[in-house]
Design a protein that fits this description.
The protein has about 170 residues and is of the alpha+beta class. The protein has 5 helices and 5 strands. It has a 5-stranded mixed β-sheet with strand order 1-2-5-4-3, with helices on both faces. α3 packs across α5 (about 145-165).
């Protein structure tokens, strides 16, 4: 794992991939958003573009597996949950993609709130960047420890974002 300096190409890379996904799925979704750290301007991040696709129901998710597979997305059941289905594209991974549904355990809402808050409050984005760099240094091979280490900060930001929206 590595944290790379912000790349001005990340929004364009997302946009190109969004167009590919949109054409493959034929508009059979509600929304596609660039989420995660690469969606936050001027913030260092792992150079993996995180994409969230909002679909009407995860009960219908089977119909997305083949089309996404045809454009290189591999489904990871063990990294999926009741609130999202998780896919990876590339080796090493270049894209993480999650299928989510509206309000089902609020995965979609949390991702958008977190991203938008860090875009609005750059000082918080810099805190998050510093935390991630520290965690990668501390756990260079530990994906789970890295994720667990971010959890308290993420929860704090979500709480602040919720309060801002009320």
């Amino acid at each position: 794992m590595e944290v790379a300096p912000y790349d001005e190409q990340w929004p364009k890379i997302f946009q190109d991939e969004k167009e590919l996904i949109s054409s493959k799925l034929g508009g059979n979704f509600l929304d596609i958003q660039h989420i995660g750290s690469t969606a936050i301007p001027m913030m260092s991040a792992k150079p993996i573009i995180d994409i969230a696709i909002l679909i009407s129901s995860l009960d219908d998710a089977e119909k997305y597996l083949i089309p996404l597979g045809e454009i290189g997305y591999q489904f990871f059941k063990d990294r999926s949950s009741v609130e999202r289905l998780f896919f990876v594209k590339g080796e090493p991974p270049r894209y993480h993609l999650s299928l989510a549904q509206p309000e089902k355990f609020s995965y979609w809402k949390r991702q958008i709130l977190f991203r938008d808050y860090l875009i609005q409050y750059h000082d918080r984005a810099l805190e998050y960047e510093a935390l991630k760099k520290c965690l990668i240094k501390k756990y260079p091979d530990g994906r789970q420890e890295y994720c667990d280490g971010k959890n308290e900060f993420v929860q704090k930001i979500l709480m602040l974002a919720e309060n801002d929206n009320n």
